[in-house]
Amino acid sequence: MTGLLGALLPAVPLVAGLLGLLLPPAPRRDGATGGDRARTTAVTLGVTGAAGALALAVALLLTVDGPTETSRTWVDVGGLAVTLGVRLDGAAALVAVAVTAVALAVQVYSIGYLRRGPHDDVDVDHRYPPYAAQISLFTGAMLLVVVAGDLIMLLVGWEVMGLCSYLLIAHDRRLAGAPAAAMKAFLVTRVGDVGFLLGIALLGVSTGSFRIADVLAHDHSTATLTAAGLLLLAGVAGKSAQFPLHTWLPDAMAGPTPISALIHAATMVAAGVYAVARLYPLFTAAPVTLTVLGVLGAITLLLGALAATAQDDIKRVLAWSTVSQLGYMTGALAVGSPAAALFHLLTHAAFKALLFLAAGAVIHAVGTTLMSEMGGLRRSMPVTFWCTVVGLGALAGVPPLAGFWSKDGVLTVAESAALEGTGPAPSWVGWIVWVAGLVGVAITAWYAGRLLLRTFFGAPRLPLLRPHDPPAVLRWPVVLLAVPAALLGLAGFAGAFADRLRFPTVPVAGSEDGLAHLGSGVLLPLALLLVGAALVTLGWRRDPSADPAAALGPLRPVFARAFRLDDVQHTLVVRPVRALARAARNGDEVVVDGAVEGSGRAASGLGAGLAALHRAALPRAAAGVLAGALLIGLAAALVGVNR
Q: The whole model's pTM is what?
């Protein structure tokens, strides 16, 4: 029964997505009702598929007591087996519930967000059927990653997510930046996916099977584990936006806001963290890989936090905050606590989906994503305001909201790894993760406070607008997401919840004592939280009309451009690759095509010359025959003399 539930979990949204792709992408509108049959069918398929997957995930959560696996051999080539099956445990069930809950909220929210208003000049939802279908496929692909019992199955879900992200980011073709952002996301993540594919191939060849249980149980050499682990981390860096492959995620904000919620909260960026947790015994057996992960996680954490301080686009602030929070998750993995990483993944899914959908409500009301054009929305949008307060409080780590407990869990295991050496990586890795995490607490409180003050407080900067809370179809997903964003962290005190997030195959002791902590260790993060919040509040009180980011001085443009790492990538990678492509094209056109076309032109010229001779007048033809005869005779005479 459990195996059947696990198999149906990704199948339901995948089937809904495939059926949705059969609908007309640009349906004719019914002038009487303003609706259309294809859109209604797409809504039904999308919502039903997500709701069915959520029901299956909840049923799985209630029925899975311990690790369960079912599989059957699909193909066996030369002793290398690929299986079809599912690998289920408490962590997989919890992550599946988070994925499906966010997916259902996004499907419902999109019904209102991508609806044509009475005064719109164009249809903003003229391609709603493929949009809803691609969300279903995206959800099914992530669920396939969650339950996959074979690395090839995991890779299939991994790659389908990449394709769906490309299609969804580029959905609104009216935006000039959307196609370029989609292409950038696709190409940057493909760079990492090459390494991910090679890592899977290396593990499969070493084991003789791609079945995850076999891969984990096999006695690999240290060199194989190190090489495979580093290759897998390349894919993780791409999907989970880790330095230096993080640059695609902020630009992906060109997609519709509900898609931003889906990518940032529950699907693509969570896949890399979950994959490392799934294969964690392999990484603990090769500590070099966790050392690299810890360094990249600490850099990503601070880079994302600093970049978020100087953004004016509300969605880009949230995007850079996602990059930073992913650094906390990978840092927890590096210091030996996949349970703490997954705990923060779950709470982050709740409050980040809440923040993006609340930001979508604000954008829907004021018609802009720039905080410099907002302000004073607290009274006109009270529901959105209080939901945003909950989301930002959880993001910053305000007790007792969810983010406080999960972030403190990460800091606790990092402190233990730094001071007591309990982690699988060297203790200095624990130090850099712990220090970066503490600094990140203060910076996060600062930019979260700035977003709240610039958006909802002060005087309205567009006084002609009359904003209001969104309609029910947009409002209820936001309100319901505020519940886990506020309360989910308290589940960390429940032993059953903590046990579900722990992997029995993880050979790490000393850093998994608990997920939620309440002791003297929380005082330092709380003090840093108050420092960050106090600094931004004092700066705003001095001049409520000014941007607190002005206090950054000459660092502001540096942070706004994220240390110009995009420019560095453009100089070191994009330009050389384009130059190589131009050289290859020129070589093909000049050398290869030149040789082929040149031989063709030579043959044509020779033929034209011979044709001209055949068309010559009789006297000229006779002269030609005589000249030929003389030449033949001369040649014969010369041959005879030589003999």
A: 0.90
